[in-house]
Design a protein that fits this description.
The complex is a heterodimer of chains A (about 300) and B (about 525).
Chain A (H helix, E strand, L loop, with lengths): L1 H28 L4 H6 L5 H10 L6 H13 L13 H36 L4 H15 L2 H15 L12 H35 L2 H8 L4 H38 L5 H10 L3 H29 L1 H5 L1
Chain B lengths: L4 H17 L11 E6 L18 H7 L4 E2 L13 E2 L2 E6 L5 E6 L14 H14 L3 H4 L2 E6 L4 E6 L6 H6 L9 H7 L1 H4 L9 E7 L3 E6 L12 E6 L3 H9 L5 E3 L6 H8 L4 E15 L9 H10 L2 H7 L4 E2 L28 H10 L6 E8 L2 H15 L3 E8 L1 H9 L5 E7 L4 H9 L26 H9 L3 H18 L2 E13 L3 E2 L17 E2 L2
The chains are: A mainly alpha (about 300), B alpha+beta (about 525).
């Protein structure tokens, strides 16, 4: 197992290197000058030159690239051009908020989505199935930033049940702050997971061993949950992995709408400010998270389907 | 324990009622805190000598002070309108090159850092000269020396009759504590600077914002409200909802047509504070791009743009400029006061005739870049339509704001809109946007004179030198007015409109004074708030 994990991690190295290189190149191709973004368009030419020298932007591109790679290997992404804060400390400050939002949204999405999918599958072409299909369609169609704004207006502005922005201080306050953004993200997830569960379960419910189980007199819940859902988990696991990655990236819009700290908001801010170090550091962390989630999914496959371990 | 149906319903009703009680509490605020929603992602620094982001000035305005200031909510349009602040009196030599300031005694720094003396003033100025963000304003300062504990002398390289406006009342020349700097260290000082203002910093969070509490040792009348919080909310919807829900008391406005009306529709009780003139929206005509080197084409552009319509579209934030300054600013003209040939009243027929005379009877096509930021894009879309009406077909490429400025700085634009805030010191705009020393360069190492005025055709350099060398205010003003007329004759730069900085305010908060003019920041020390 350890060897397998190490091999998978080694596989990820070229991917991460490619991501790093692409981000580096993309940032340099993108028009816009970090010095002007930091000092303002009224800055004197000599002030801009001073700034570029201070930030290492005056050396040739290849040298900047190797400095960046060396910095990444030693986990030093430099400092933010805007406020001088070390990039690593910015990431450390923001990442927990993005992770807690992603996890909360995934939990709600799974808790709502899987039962909905099961309900739709066992009531195929009946009213509950139609309801779930409509819910899925609406969930897919509504952009999360719009849904977020709608929820803010109804539940935070008009009803006043939830805070309008921020992430809160202390455990209970943080839970209070996370509910609305997590539910916004989760509804879209639930639509996806519900649809996926329905499809997977319907496929499994048509198999011979399900018929055998029913013929042996097994009770319907046992047939559905023990024999059906368990075997439908493999495609569902793949879907959940993809959904987790989508939630991670989807949190960008939600962090902006709800004015929550997080990696997404940090990246958007640094993009507008051409804060190369922060962008590069943020993308490296996201790339690592994607690799880790994929690895996690591989491990879950082994747990869910022992045949994979044998292979 | 079993629960009967009736008991369950009773419990549910009670729970709903309790939720309803809490309806307005999730976003409710204390009457002893003023919270403003700032239109940016996060604060960069709290050190006034190093601010690079205008939004940071909301907090620095509360915490730091200069030797002199204008009245709250106003600009000092002439030097005699400044009021004593950390200096109680001042005088300049007859050549306007040596200035003496007597300091107020007993002024206490925040956090127990003791009394402000000339040592702190010299330290703050020298720091701003050596490393400060705005070296431009400090470049004329030859030296700053202490003349005893409560007096400083500032000597200049060239005369400056406007020193109070150009240098003394600047965010970057706010006075900070030398003792605190020595103790805290340069790096920490960036987010924990110590000043003398009515509020002192208690929290600096690069994501959330800044919190301040009343400075109990303040030399003047102490702030009425105990705390101020500057909360950074970049997203417009989130910021608007924060104001409407009562989560914040004020927000920075979206400076786009119709925004004020749309806010009033949501809440007719909202108050709007606006500083006139706010930003100066100017339009550079690149004299190196044909056919804009032809004065007749530039005049056609000027006659084609209905500048009153541009200002009206931005109402109530928009304002009109006959030249490059609003008429209530020094050197500003009213249209009627200008010579008839320089009034440029909107006249599309004349614009078409001028184009025909220039050899373009069927008009012409050209490309221009524009920033997607709402104040830029809304103004330039109006200009595009007005130019189209006379046959000047401008293909407007709207893109990212940072990229737009980088492109302008690399001489890649034809008609380049620029938006900047200026105090009532006309030479600042002239130097930055018209002087040959500020000419734009294709390698990005030039300045903000995107029209190449003064190099492609003779410009205003001699007049600008005259103004900058003036030893009395009248000579300064005369030279500035000549510059205004010269620019209207040559048309390298058009004053499109002014655009007020605007804050939407909950009526519970009373600022204690009317906001009429000034920079995009004002103080809250006189404010009161009802629960």
């Amino acid at each position: 197992m350890t060897r397998y994990m190490l091999l998978r991690l080694a596989d990820a190295i070229p991917t991460i290197w490619l991501v790093l290189t692409l981000v580096f190149i993309a940032m340099r191709i993108l028009p816009g000058d970090p010095a002007i973004a930091a000092l303002g368009d009224a800055a004197l030419p000599e002030q801009l030159a001073d700034f570029r020298a201070k930030m290492g932007l005056d050396v040739p591109l290849w040298q900047q690239y190797f400095n960046f790679l060396y910095g990444t290997l030693s986990l030093d992404f430099g400092k933010s051009y805007m406020n001088g804060t070390p990039v690593l400390s910015l990431i450390a400050r923001n990442l927990p908020y993005t992770i807690e939002l992603t996890i909360a949204a995934m939990i709600i999405g799974v808790v709502v989505g899987i039962p909905l999918g099961v309900m739709a599958a066992v009531n195929r072409d009946k009213l509950p199935d139609t309801g779930v299909r409509i819910f899925s369609l609406v969930g897919y169609a509504i952009p999360d930033f719009y849904l977020g704004a709608l929820f803010l207006i109804v539940f935070a502005l008009n009803l006043g049940w939830f805070p309008i922005n921020g992430a809160g201080d202390g455990f209970l306050d943080r839970v209070h702050h996370i509910i609305l953004p997590a539910v916004t993200l989760a509804l879209v997830k639930a639509a996806f997971i519900g649809r996926l569960t329905r499809t997977s379960l319907l496929e499994v419910l048509g198999r011979d061993y399900i018929r055998t189980a029913r013929a042996k007199g097994a009770r319907e819940p046992r047939v559905i949950y023990r024999h059906g859902l368990r075997n439908a988990l493999l495609p569902l696991t793949t879907g959940l992995g993809l959904s987790l990655l989508a939630t991670l990236s989807g949190s960008v819009a939600i962090e902006l709408v709800f004015n929550r700290p997080g990696i997404g908001r940090m990246l958007i801010q640094s993009m507008t400010e051409r804060d190369y170090g922060v962008i590069q550091g943020g993308v490296v962390v996201l790339a690592l998270l994607v690799v880790l989630i994929n690895l996690l999914m591989d491990l879950v496959y082994i747990v869910v389907d022992p045949r994979i371990r044998v292979k | 324990m079993s629960l009967k149906r009736r008991e369950f319903l009773e419990l549910a009703a009670a729970a709903t009622a309790l939720s309803a009680v809490g309806i307005r509490t999730a976003n409710a605020q204390s009457a002893d805190v003023i919270r403003i929603g700032i239109a940016a992602n996060g604060p960069r620094t709290s050190d006034p000598n190093f601010t690079t982001q205008g939004s940071d000035n909301w907090a620095t305005e509360q915490m730091y002070e200069q030797l002199v200031r204008p009245e709250d909510g106003d600009f000092a349009t002439t030097p005699d309108k400044y009021v004593p602040t950390l200096a109680t009196e001042w005088k300049s030599s007859s050549d306007a090159k040596t200035w003496n300031f007597k300091l107020r005694q007993g002024v206490q720094f925040h956090k127990g850092y003791g009394e402000m003396t000339s040592e702190d003033v010299v330290f703050s100025y020298k720091r701003a000269i050596a490393d400060g963000t705005n070296k431009t304003i400090m470049s004329n300062v030859a030296d700053v020396v202490a003349k005893g504990p409560y007096e400083v002398e500032i000597t200049l390289k060239t005369p400056d009759v406007n020193l109070l406006g150009t240098t003394i009342f600047s965010n970057n020349t706010a006075i900070v504590s030398k003792k605190a700097f020595d103790k805290i260290g340069a790096e920490k000082f960036m987010t924990d600077a110590v000043g003398t203002g009515p509020y002192e910093l208690t929290r600096f969070d690069p994501q959330w914002g800044e919190a301040m509490k009343r400075h109990e040792g303040y030399w003047g009348t102490k702030a009425k409200i105990a705390s101020v919080e500057c909360v950074f909310i970049a997203d417009t919807t989130a910021r608007t909802l924060a104001l409407l829900s009562g989560n914040v008391d004020m927000i920075e406005a979206v400076r786009a047509p119709g925004w004020v009306d749309s806010m009033l529709q949501r809440d007719p009780t909202l108050q709007f504070d606006m500083t006139q003139p706010g930003s100066f929206n100017t339009l550079h005509i690149n004299l190196n791009r044909k056919p804009f080197d032809n004065i007749k084409v530039r005049q056609a552009v000027m006659y084609a743009i209905d500048r009153h319509a541009v200002a009206n579209a931005l109402k109530p934030m928009g304002g009109f400029m006959a030249g490059l300054q609003p008429d209530f600013f020094p050197a500003g003209f009213k249209t009627e006061a200008l010579p008839a040939g320089l009034q440029y009243k909107y006249d599309p027929a004349k614009a078409k005739a001028l184009l025909a005379e220039a050899g373009f009877p069927n008009g012409l096509d050209f490309d221009s870049n524009c920033s997607q930021r709402e104040d830029y894009s809304s103004t330039m879309l109006i200009v595009q339509e007005q130019l189209r009406a006379v046959g000047l077909r401008m293909n407007l490429k709207i893109g990212d704001h940072t990229a737009y400025h980088a492109d302008n700085r690399s001489d890649k634009n034809t008609l380049a809109m620029h938006s900047s805030s200026y105090p009532p010191i006309p030479t600042q705009l002239y130097f930055q946007q018209l002087s040959s020393k500020s000419e734009v360069k294709s390698d990005g190492k030039g300045g903000g004179n995107y029209s190449h005025y003064g190099t492609t055709i003779p410009g205003i350099d001699p007049l600008l030198d005259q103004a900058l060398q003036a030893t009395d205010y009248k000579t300064y003003l005369d030279a500035c007015q000549k510059i205004e007329l010269q620019v209207l004759r040559d048309l390298p730069l058009i004053g499109l409109s002014t655009l007020a900085f605007t804050v939407a305010r909950n009526k519970r908060v009373n600022l204690g004074y009317p906001v009429k003019s000034g920079y995009a920041r004002w103080r809250f020390h006189r404010a009161t708030k009802t629960a």
